Amino acid sequence: MRLTDQAGAALLLVCIAVLPFRAMAQYEMGINNSNYSGIDGTLLNPAAGADPKFKWDLNIASASVLFDNNFLYIPKGAVPAFGFKSIIKGIIHTDKFSTYYDASRPEKLYNVTLSAELLGPSIQWALPYGQSVGFHMANRISANVRNIPGATAQNAFDYLRSSALWDTTFSDQSTKVNGMNWLEYGFHYSAILFDDGTDKWNAGITLKYLQGIAAAYATNTHLAYRIEDSTNLRFSGSVDYGRTDYDSYRHIGDYGDLNHGHGFGMDIGVQFAHADQYKLGFSVMDIGSIRFNRNAAAFHLQTTEANFSNWGQLELHSNLAVDQTLSAVFYNGDSGRSQVGNGFTMKLPTVLSLQGDWKIQDHYYLNATIVKGLGHGDRPGGVGPDIYSVTPRYESEWWDVSIPFSILYYGVWRPRIGLAVRAGYVFFGGDAPASLLALSRLRGTDFYAGVRFFVFKKKNQ
């Protein structure tokens, strides 16, 4: 594979990958705000686990994905409804996607957000005096490309081979790329702190051990570049980047090959309830970080002027070869100068959340939730999108039906309408399913589904 193929493919896959995992479990507005959400509710606010409806609640398996971007799209009708096979083939062959690139505005900035999680067997038990304990295990992904200029994005999409973009000097002073995949093991506790029969205060905490699987970042981008033709690429400036060794995944002989670092995280939350009329909650989720220090490296590239000759013909087959080649180009033949560390730290996608839930009448509720993603400046780390939602909901012991109305913000405002259903032990839905139904251009999606089992507490418990 050529160097430009590797770089372009990596960025392209970050931008368009729709992965079969569960998206940021906290954001399932149609499910997690229900009074019957069980352990799923603690993934939005740990305090929601206090005095649960169930004696115990087991999430057997669930999956979903949140993805959105304003650069790439699949035209309406190019793939069938729920055409995951066609989408995957389109990713491999890059023959299904178009871009919003505007040649008259090459400096226009674009953004991508992707959050994904596979939640495995996870359980919550009710304890006496309004307490609960729980455990969850998950495989999570957080990735985002922020403020990438249109020319940079289009060059990545075309693998630098579009002659329409040659012989022009472009500037990139803003691109930030962050992506990481990790395993998460969470231990949960919540309890009622105060209850006078009318007003009630709950609190909860989840402590998490994190095992890093993969990560990559690029930040402090200050580059100017000019593709003269298929043999000469000139550029100047600087950029910092880091990555785990993706060559180590090619021959996975044992579980240790997936282990590239460790870290710790925490979720905390409080909740106030007035009788059965309304609830107000506040939580801070994903406080913490992962230190990637096994088969990982950090780099700094800087040059006043460099010429990358014969870039289109160079064949490189490992990330080490890519790193050494870039270093040699930036530092006049010194292939080892760019490496500045044998590891790096990635912050978790920390978010603040406010929740309000009002009972309209028996079985009918109205929920309002705000999720605010926190940035990390120039430090590597995931950045969750902002979500503002209003969700009318019907709920009973065995049925929930809700219609989330939400606005997603990740540098771009995106209004959405969804549908979620819980039918006994099964739930499914999405906060933006229209594109997967082939009703519009596919530029993002948000869906979830899962199977759980629970046992209700006795009425006098």
Question: What is the straight-line distance between the termini?
Answer: 64 Å
Q: Tell me about the biggest sheet?
A: 22 strands, antiparallel
In percent terms, what proportion of residues is strand? over 45%
| Mean pLDDT across every amino acid position | 86
Q: Report the uncertain regions.
A: 1-26
Number of helices: 5
- Helix content, binned percent: 10-25%
Count of individual beta strands: 24
* Cα-atom radius of gyration: 24 Å
Task: Tell me what you see in this structure.
This protein has 461 residues and is mainly beta. It has one domain (3-456). 10% of the residues lie in helices and 52% in strands. It contains five helices and 24 strands. The strands form two sheets. The chain has a 22-stranded antiparallel β-sheet that branches. A hairpin with a 2-residue loop joins strand 22 and strand 23 (426-432). Helix 1 (3-16) crosses helix 4. The radius of gyration is 24 Å and the shape is elongated.
What is this entry, summarized?
The protein is mostly beta strands and 461 residues long.
Note the main attributes of this structure.
single chain, 461 residues, mainly beta, 22-stranded antiparallel beta sheet, two-stranded antiparallel sheet, 24 strands, 52% strand
Topology of helices and strands:
Blueprint: H1 3-16, H2 29-32, E1 54-69, E2 72-73, H3 84-93, E3 98-99, E4 109-119, E5 122-127, E6 131-149, H4 150-157, E7 169-172, E8 176-195, E9 199-227, E10 232-244, E11 261-274, E12 278-292, E13 296-309, H5 319-330, E14 339-341, E15 344-347, E16 351-361, E17 364-373, E18 386-395, E19 399-402, E20 405-409, E21 413-417, E22 419-423, E23 426-432, E24 444-456
Antiparallel strand pairs: 1-4, 1-5, 1-24, 2-3, 4-6, 5-6, 6-8, 7-9, 8-9, 9-10, 9-11, 10-13, 11-12, 12-15, 12-16, 13-14, 16-17, 17-18, 18-19, 18-20, 19-22, 20-21, 22-23, 23-24
Helix pairs in contact: 1-4
